[in-house]
Specification:
The chain is mainly α. It contains 3 helices and no strands. The longest helix has 26 residues.
Length: about 100
């Protein structure tokens, strides 16, 4: 798998998780953020990051997911989670339409 394909898959997975989290009440999200943190930390250590750097990477990932959840809530207008009546807009990561180039 190419780096670009792996990144695109990762971003789709993160988006999916953020959509699910946005549908939950705020007081039920922390356990999910902790699971994301642990998974990311283990993955970072598995690819060779030292434990301190892996913890930083994992915390950054959780903050990124939290930000996405916030964006999803604002985009829904109500702050009550995603609108499940329609699918999310298609994203074209790395396409020429948004000025990015493929990796």
């Amino acid at each position: 798998m190419s780096v670009g394909a792996a990144l695109e898959l990762l971003l789709r997975l993160i988006h999916s998780r953020a959509m699910k989290l946005a549908a939950l009440p705020e007081d039920e999200r922390d356990i999910h953020y902790d699971l994301i943190r642990r998974s990311c930390c283990e993955a970072a250590e598995h690819i060779g990051q030292n434990p301190d750097k892996a913890a930083i990477t994992a915390n950054d990932m959780v903050e990124f997911v939290r930000a996405l959840v916030g964006i999803i809530e604002v985009g829904c207008g109500s702050g009550q989670g995603p609108n499940t009546d329609r699918p999310p807009p298609a994203r074209h990561f790395g396409s020429r339409e948004n000025g990015m180039t493929r990796v």
